[in-house]
Amino acid sequence: MPTPQTSTPDRTGLLAALSAYVMWGFLPLYLILVQVVPPTEFVAWRIIFTVPICLLIVMLRRQMPEIRAALTDRRVILTLLGSATLIGVNWFVYVWAIQNGNVYAASLGYYINPLLNVVLGTVFLGEVLTRRQWFAAGLAAAGIALLLGGALTTLWISLTLAGSFATYGLLRKQVAVGALPGLTIESALLLPLALGIAWVFAAGPDGSAVAVSAELTLSIMLGGALTAIPLLLFAIAARRMNYSTLGFIQFLAPTIVFILGLTVFEEELQLVQLACFVMIWSAAAIFVWDIVQRSRIAVKASAAS
Questions:
Q1: What is the model's pLDDT at position 243?
Q2: Distance CA 125, CA 11 (A)
Q3: Distance between CA atoms of 26 and 8, rounded to whole angstroms?
Q4: Which residue stretches of 100-178 are H helix?
Q5: pLDDT tens-digit readout, 18-72
Q6: Helix %, strand %, coil % for the chain, to 5?
Q7: Strand runs (DSSP E) across 178-258, as ranges?
Q8: Which is higher by pLDDT, 215 or 299?
Q9: Which partner for 140 in 63, 69, 109, 283 could form a disulfide, CB atoms 3.0-4.6 Å apart?
Q10: What are the b/e assignments for 79-102, b being 16+ CB within 10 Å?
Q11: 145 exposed, middle or buried (CB, 10 Å; 0-12, 13-18, 19+)?
């Protein structure tokens, strides 16, 4: 049985989590630049350009020995193969959803995700929530339930995004591999499939997307950095923070996406969606307030001892 964890966040992990979720929140703006690229081909190029960026950072940080050690552990490789598959599915569904105008469905998926993180954290990691945090979880669940009633046709998008990313984070928390080496191995495991997909599109009637123009090629290449950096930050946060707490911080990203859907993508906002938005942010505020209060108590207790 795992040892129960508290909900006081590590400062480095908290900063990494906030940075990752802000970058993910504004990702739809980047996807506008590459909207002419089919989702399958774009995800393939995204993987291809992520690998060299990860390898470069690994060499600069002198972490190659850690990668070699991980490659000799069968359990680690199988776990990272599972997490790589999950993140590949997550990337594809997210890109497809944004390109097809389902911004709210994508946003909903990442609103559901924190609730799954709470369940996974309490069931598999032995994490303990306070009463206020459970109340926040219930309030968020009620808000999401409002949206589920009016989003049945796109519910598969939301559930796939939520389930794949929540499980991805849980698997990454289970393996004794550093954030960057783990991401590098994951990308390398997906690389053969990505190269095959890129070759199929290049041989097709429309040719490769990277051959269309220099501007589009540079935009596609940018996807490597926008993939590696926030995922690296998330992996750092997942290993340093209570997983349930990490889940609630994630409300930041879908809220940004939600606002972009209103302003940039100009999707119609229904009253039930607005009610959900208010309830979820209220839940996040309660959760964060509880964390701050517990942190202050811990600091005072430490100073008094």
A1: 61
A2: 21
A3: 27
A4: 103-124, 131-148, 155-174
A5: 999 999 999 999 999 999 999 999 999 999 999 999 999 889 889 899 999 999 9
A6: 80, 0, 20
A7: none
A8: 215
A9: 283
A10: bbebbbbbbbbbbbbbbbbbbeeb
A11: exposed
